[in-house]
Specification:
Elements lengths: L6 H9 L4 E5 L3 H10 L3 E4 L3 H4 L11 H14 L4 E5 L9 H15 L3 E5 L5 H9 L4 E6 L18 H17 L3 E5 L3 H10 L4 E4 L7 E4 L1 H4 L17 H17 L14 H11 L1
Parallel strand pairs: 1-2, 1-8, 2-3, 3-4, 4-5, 5-6, 6-7, 7-8
Helix pairs in contact: 2-4, 4-5, 5-6, 6-7, 7-8
The structure holds 3-methyl-2-oxobutanoic acid (KIV).
């Protein structure tokens, strides 16, 4: 087993100009595979609502569902730092509730840190959760939980004013004590400016290559979820057709009785079979 990645390792990576690798996982086998691939951070994202539960967005994901999936991932993933996503409305109504829910993700789920969406407006919440002893990762730019208010799943920071306010968000999160920030769907030059504006690692998803690390939704990058593929996703594999082919081959084998073959079947001594047949006649 490798070494457990810590927050300090993630912060040090930026100082050492070493890229941070982050992917999502929602269950035990993907947690195991992420560790085996040597990624630094595994995010149990609320994208689970879309790529695992078949919802239209992330808003419907509950605390119970997040805890259930974080538990499964943390059983498989022993090396990577595990981030638990705070679902919509688990941190938005009061700071007290935010601390309590962040604590549940950590205590009941088993994640190492929590992530929440929002910048300047949520800096006091981030600060309070950190004061309670729970490390926080920020998420700015396109924030899927409030995508409808942002005009849909669209690139953010188009004009200078909007871009400046995302930089302000990053600075506010750094001041509040966040150990790193996800920046989603912004122009590549803005991604670079954000990474330069703060000393904590900035991990991009659709924010260009000049940030401190990259995160992708695993189901997007391995071609397991292809309802829509965002522009910023590179597909490294096409798992879905492989699985469908396997299911079709199984169906065919069952119909033709080619499965199960003798190597998949248990045998019985001839004598026992004879005796059994006599007993049931
Ligand atoms: O929920 C998620 O998967 C995320 C990523 C898009 C960063 O927040």
């Amino acid at each position: 087993m490798g070494k457990k990645i810590t927050i300090q390792d993630i912060k040090q990576a930026k100082k050492d100009h070493k890229k941070i690798i982050m992917v999502t996982a929602y269950d035990y086998p993907f947690g195991l595979m992420a560790d085996e691939a040597g990624v630094d951070i595994v995010l149990v994202g609320d994208s689970l609502g879309m790529v695992v539960m078949g919802l239209e967005g992330t808003v419907g994901v509950t605390m119970e569902q997040m805890i259930h999936h974080i538990k499964a991932v943390s059983r498989g993933c022993k090396n990577a730092l595990i981030v638990g996503d705070m679902p919509f409305m688990s941190y938005n109504t009061s700071i007290r509730e935010a601390i309590s829910n962040a604590g549940r993700l950590m205590k009941e789920g088993g994640c190492d840190v929590v992530k929440l969406e929002g910048g300047v407006d949520f800096a006091p919440t981030v600060e309070a959760i950190i004061k309670a002893g729970i490390p926080v990762q920020g998420h700015i730019g396109l924030t899927p939980q409030t995508a409808s208010a942002l005009g849909g799943f669209k690139m953010q920071g188009k004009d200078a004013t909007a871009a400046k306010s995302i930089i302000d968000d990053a600075k506010a999160l750094e001041k509040a004590g966040a150990f790193s920030i996800i920046v989603e769907a912004v122009p590549a030059p803005l991604g670079e400016l954000i990474a330069k504006a703060v000393t904590i690692p900035v991990i991009g998803i659709g924010a260009g290559s000049r940030v401190d690390g990259q995160v992708l939704v695993t189901h997007d990058m391995v071609g397991l979820f292809d309802k829509f593929v965002p522009k910023f996703v590179k597909q490294y594999a096409q798992i879905r057709p492989t699985i469908i082919d396997a299911l079709k081959a199984f169906k065919e084998d069952v119909i033709t009785e080619s499965f199960p073959a003798s190597e998949h079947s248990f045998t019985m001594p001839d004598k026992t079979l004879e005796e059994l047949k006599k007993n049931i006649e």
